[in-house]
Structure formats: structure tokens, C-alpha cells
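Hi support team,

I'm filing this because I wasn't sure whether my run with adenosine-5'-diphosphate finished correctly. The job status page said complete, but I'd like someone to confirm that the output block is well-formed before I use it downstream. Pasting the exact inputs I used:
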Amino acid sequence: MASLSLRNIQKYYQPGNVHVVKGFNLEIQDGEFIVFVGPSGCGKSTTLRMIAGLEDISSGELYIDDELVNDVDSGKRHISMVFQSYALYPHMSVYDNMSFALKIQKVPKAEIEKRIAPVAELLGLTPFLKRKPKALSGGQRQRVALGRAIVRDDTKVLLMDEPLSNLDAKLRVQMRSEIIKLHQRIQTTIIYVTHDQIEAMTMADRIVIMYQGITQQVGTPKQVYDYPENLFVASFIGTPGMNFIDGTIDSEGFFHIDKNISLKLEDKQFELIKQRGYIDQEVTLGIRPEDVILTNEKKPNTLAVEVDIAELLGAEYNIIFNLKEKALISKCKASIDLKAHQKILLNFDMKKAHIFDPKTTTRIYQKEIN
Ligand code: ADP
Ligand code: MG
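And here is everything the job wrote out:
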């Protein structure tokens, strides 16, 4: 187990001096489960590979347990890595795959057996130890790759790069919980890379959201969901995604979508908007689908709209409707029948609204203040 400190880490790829990681800063506590998430090409794998020592750090400092390791060989960093491709040796049995690193370290045979047995048990691999990888399912192969990473008792940090991407949806959900349970038992510091925000939300102690080589926000799943710091985070986290509506706020605290449609901000929210000088300026209001609520009463902040599409997901509907020619989504329980073109009332829960500056893309005020 170990703590890590990443201080202003940069990566430039040669040739061309392409800047792909632009000042990565993070303090990771011993035993934390950290997830790097972001769209393809944002620099997640590059950052992970720099931590593993598989890629040079162009500038900045990487500490593992207070030791500067920029120039320490990959093999001496006490890091294990699990890849998307599993990278198992096809001609070796499960047992040999899992014990390979120990053999190289010249760990005695009896000691290897002692170490493999509990790990195989933990991962449900005991019946398969003699099999070759090709005789295993995708999920079992991924477990062997995990097992191989954790049998080494010198592992301080476990790195995983999209380890579940090759599995089908159902197995992915199952392996997700297995990895969470594994972490609870072994309590090793884990850095896990994924492009899947649901994986990030469900697995992480803290999430690092990356975009174009820049860290957009670091926080617990709840923090990044409830208080996204900018439009990218707001749109990337959550399914269906947050609704965004452009408009202006008047001196009475009304957010005007157009001449006839407006929503009243909460008093505290409005006070902060006013203090920051955003009256009559273009702003973007963000509101999550579950905060646009189907209702029967014409309360304040309730708009009459027409259902465009009602997607039934079993227990819930995604109600897609248009506001000022823009498709928005409300999420509600499927306790009533809904049809296209039906007229409905939707209440916008303005306590849950987020206001962003569309020019800088950042949140105008902190929602915690509410
Ligand atoms: P992610 O894992 O988030 O999808 P990567 O870290 O793999 O992103 O890549 C970040 C950026 O760096 C991408 O634009 C990618 O094309 C580029 N890149 C990755 N590896 C190399 C390399 N060896 N040489 C040059 N560019 C690279
Ligand atoms: Mg990658």
C-alpha cells in the first residue's frame, strides 16, 4: 500500500512535441480507489503509464510514499498493472500465468503455492488453475489478469487500464462489483482508468475527470455529480445527461428562456448571481432530468410542454420534450401511461439548478452555498 503525489506532471510526445498531459496534480491517499475518467484521447493511459514507469515523465514530479520515482525503473516501483487486453501467456496454465512474476523473482516453489491458493480462492479460480487461457471465458481471463497483479506481495499500487472494456455488459457489471470487493479486502491503492462514467461513479472513492489533457475536476462521485465545476463535467457525468438551457437573468431573479418562458431562481442563488455581475448577461442553466418533475399542479416554475417521445425503460420514463426548439429530458417513474404529443406539466426544481458562464464554461457560484 502506498500514497502517491503527482505534482505538475506534463507529457510531451516526440516527435512533434505534442502536449498530451498538461499539468496533472493529485495527492492520493494510501488505500484510495482513484478513477481517471474522460473521453478517448484525453490522456488517461499516458498518465497511468507514466505512474507505472512505462512512459517517461516530461516534467513534474511523481512521488510514491514520499520517494521521488521519476527516474526509478518500472520494475522497482512496486506497481502492478492490469490491461484491457489481459495480456496472458496463451501457452501457460492459469497457475503459471499467475505465478510468473514470482518465479522471476525466484520466490521458492512452496511459497508460490502458498500465495496463489488464497488469491485463486478470492477470485473463484481454484477449479481452473490447470487450464490454459483459451479454455476460459472473458470474465475468467480478466480474473486471472487481476490475480496475477495481486499475488505479488510487494505491490504498493495497482493500476488498471480499462480492464473491463472487452467484456459484455452483464459481465462488466459483475466484474465491477468483484473489483470493488477485492479492493475492500486487499485495501491496496488502486488507480483505475475508464472512459465509462458509470464505472467511475460506482467504483471510485474519488474521480479525476480529464478532458484534452487537463484535469477538469477531482472529487467524490457525489461531489462531481452534485457540484460539477464546469459544463464539460456537468455534461459528462450522469445519464441521461444534464439539460442545458441558454438565457438571461433579470434584476428580479427570473431566468428568461425567451419572451414568454421564465423560471424563478432561488433567492440565495440569485443573490450570488447578482454579486458576480451576471444580471442581463448570457448564462447557461443546467438541470438534471430527475430534477424536471412531472406534476399535476400548476405551481411556480412549472411549464406546460408537449411530449415528443416517451421512452419507457421499465420502471422509468425518459420524457423527451422541446423547449425553444431544443430537446430536453425529464426522468420520471413509469406509474402512468405517456404518449407522444400528450400535454404535460413539468416542474423545474430550481434548488437543483446549476448556472454556468457559457464563455468560460465554469459554474458561476458554488451550489453548496444554497
Ligand atoms: P486515453 O487513454 O485517455 O484514451 P492516451 O493517453 O492514450 O488517451 O492518449 C492521449 C493522446 O496522446 C492522444 O491524442 C493520443 O493519440 C496521443 N498518444 C498516445 N500515445 C502516443 C505515442 N506513443 N506517441 C504520440 N502520441 C501518443
Ligand atoms: Mg487509454
